[in-house]
Every structure is written in C-alpha cells, then in structure tokens.
Amino acid sequence: MIAGKFFVLGGFDAQERILNSVLQLDIAANVCIPAPDMLSPRLACDAAVYGGRLLVAGGYNHEDGHLRCVEALDPREGKWQRAARMSVRRYDLGLAALEDALYAAGGCDEDDNCTAVVEHYEARMDCWCVTTRMPKARQYFAFLGWAG
What we know:
single chain, mainly beta, Neuraminidase, four-stranded antiparallel beta sheet
C-alpha cells in the first residue's frame, strides 16, 4: 500500500475545514484514491515512512490546537493507530527518517513561537526523546535525512 505511492494527508479545503482525509496517488497508473482517514484532523503536519509504516506527526486543529500526537498507518492492517506523543506540541515541523531513526525538528510551539527542539522516536520503547536543539529556531522549512 505504501511502496511506489504518494500520500496527501490532512490540510484544509476550500471552505477552510481542517481535514483528516488521506489520498493515495499512484502517478504511474494516473489514479488518486482515498486511503483510510487519520484519527485526528490536522494541517501543517509532516509525515515520513518509518519501520514499514506511514507516520504523521504534529500539526494543528481547532479542537486540540497545536498537536503533539503521532499516528501510524500500517499498510497490512489498513488502519491508523496512535503512536507515542512527541514531547513538544507543534505545527510546521519537519519529520524525517534516516536509517533506523525518525526525527522531528523545529516548528511552531503551543505559544506560537518557533522552536529549535529536535527529538527522535525510540521505537522499542514507543517514546520520543529530545536529541538536541538547532542553532536557530525554524518554521516553514524542509527537513530531510540522507544516508548517501
């Protein structure tokens, strides 16, 4: 379900409703089909593939405000499950997998301040741990892991 596909997660629509819907894009076949909805609506989140699952972290919605919740879609089960929450509530964060680790960086915290916090996900313990801080807080940035 994940391999060879693109996913569009959340955001808001033309009526500015925050969405929990997910679309699966297969560019080669020129099709776009609905995938299972996330548990929480969210915009300004980020996602990465880690451990064979699609994870989405952070974001914002009207009910909960700034999010620290993380959800995982297991392609074998075809449904979303809650994963451990990040230590920092944030939207506009970066999420990236590198080798056997998943990292969340920066974004805008619950006080609407840019944050420099970088944390990593400990899969064996199902928890997030603060790893370091970037020299400058960042929001609206790209975050990429490159093992090359």
